[in-house]
Amino acid sequence: MSMIEFDGVTKVYSDGTTAVDDISFEVASGETLTLVGPSGCGKTTTMKMINTLIRVTDGTISVDEVPVDERNTIDLRRTIGYVIQEIGLFDHMTVSENIGIVPDLLGWDDDRIDDRVVELLELIELPGEAKDQYPSELSGGQRQRVGVARALAANPQVMLMDEPFGALDPLTRENLQDEFLDIQNNLDVTIVFVTHDIDEALKMGDKVAVMRDGSIVQCDIPKTILSEPTDDFVADFVGEDQQLKHLSTVAVEEVMDDNVPPPDSPTVAPSSTLKDVAKVLLGSDYDALPVIDGGETVGVVTRAHVQAVIGDSGTLAEVEVGNGA
Q: Which of 102, 175, 260, 324 is the most exposed place for a label (fewest CB within 10 A)?
């Protein structure tokens, strides 16, 4: 079932500028769609029309099969989590108060809110004492985690993320991407994720919509975007480092086998990508890594698995993995 559906949606501003031009797509329940493209292509406008921060000029947007313009605006926004680059935490409120603001508006009792705050702090890997701290006492990465927790607090069906990691340094950004992918595996939430970074779009999205001049040029799974770009614009936007991008789109759990793991070697998680595996293997003498989930070994991933994705276009030793997003 489609959780979000765009049908012939257009946005024209009062000055005559067409920001979004007759776009149609669906996001299935539990799926993440990344919207990516150059500045001014319409991706943020597209996302903001879902929670009616921007109103459509023509066409229909439906959430859970109900057109958003038929919903009460306040009720709609309280059921949609929203994460932005600037985070938007209230500085005069504690972490607990920031996370609990929407549940409080929805009438949750204090004990239920407290339980949810504790649960979310554990989910985003912040210590319990953080709930009594103020945003100014946290690092940028920690504040971003709290922003994600606040968006998840009322158990939304839909979450909108507008360049949520864009203001962070590359290492923190990549770590938060990885952590969010782990969190996402434990959630039943439909996500629309806006980014200008094709690497992030390919990593975070179950599907990727590449936009240009208010239109969707191609919307497909990451592997197809990489291997079958619909035109020169998409091919140029994807870039030349195909090997690394392909590794970023394959999760360890998709390729691991059940062989005996080597002793004392570094480990990876099932949700890690083959790019993560390549980083570890290139810095070690190991040919295989145990895959650990919940403290248990669930499989093994090897150099051969990585090489199979790279194919005939090169070798693992030739891949420049780097430390960026």
A: 260
Contact 261, 288 (CB under 8 A): yes
Task: Give the integer Cα–Cα distance in Å for 301 and 268.
Answer: 9
Q: How far apart are CA 301 and CA 71, in angstroms?
A: 48
Amino acid identity at 158: V
Separation of first and last alpha carbons in the chain: 32
Contact at 8 Å (CB) between 203 and 248? yes
- Residue 91 burial (CB < 10 Å; 0-12/13-18/19+)? exposed
* Cα gap 243→3, rounded to integer Å: 33
For the stretch 11-52, pLDDT in tens is: 999 999 999 999 999 999 999 999 999 999 999 999 999 999
Neighbours of 46 (CB within 10 A): 26
**Please, are residues 76 and 51 in contact by the beta-carbon 8 Å criterion?**
yes
Q: CA 247, 252, 258, 259 torsion: positive or negative?
A: positive
Q: Are 239 and 281 in contact (CB under 8 A)?
A: no
Q: Give long-range contacts, CB 8 A cutoff, 24+ apart: 270-274.
A: 270/298, 270/299, 271/178, 271/181, 271/182, 271/185, 272/178, 273/203, 273/247, 273/248, 273/249, 274/247, 274/248, 274/250, 274/301, 274/305, 274/306, 274/309
- For the stretch 171-214, pLDDT in tens is 777 877 877 887 777 778 899 999 998 988 998 999 999 999 99
Print burial letters for 115-130: b (CB count within 10 Å at least 16), e (below 16).
ebbeebbebbebeeeb
223: left (phi over 0), alpha (psi -120 to 50) or beta: alpha
Q: Write out the two tokens for 138.
A: 């946290």
Q: How many whole angstroms separate alpha carbon 130 and alpha carbon 97?
A: 11
Report the predicted TM-score, pTM, of the whole model to 2 decimal places.
Answer: 0.80
The Cα–Cα gap between 54 and 203 comes to 27
